[in-house]
Amino acid sequence: MHQPTCLRCEEGSLECLGYSHNRRGLARSAAPKALKPRPIKPKVQEPDELSSLQPITISLNLKSSSEGNSSRSGKGSSSELETLPEACVLSNSDIFKGLSASQSVNIPGFSAESLSPPGLHHPSYRSLTRRPPLTTGDYLRLFTSKPHESQTTALSPSLHQLFLIFSRLPYSPSDPIIAYLESSQFEAYFVSYFKRMADYAYFKPLKDQAEQLKNQLLLRLRGSHFTRWVMLLCAKICEDIVDGDRSQTTLHIRWLGDIEAAVRRKLAQDLTPRETEELRGDCLEISLIRTALGQSSNAYVVLRNATPTFLQTTYALPDLWSSDSDPTLIPLLNIVGSEHHALSSFTLIDCTCAMIFGLPQQVEYDTSTSLLPKGFRPYEWAHSSPTEFQILLADINACRDKSPRARDWREIEYALLDWQAQPTRHDESWESWMVVAWLAVQESWRLTLLVYLYLSVCGLTSDDPRIQLCVTQILQVIGTVRKHESPDIKVPFFIQYLMVRQPICIPGEILTDVTHRSESAHEVNNIVKSHEENFQT
Question: Which superkingdom heads the taxonomic lineage of this protein's source (predicted)?
Answer without folding.
Answer: Eukaryota
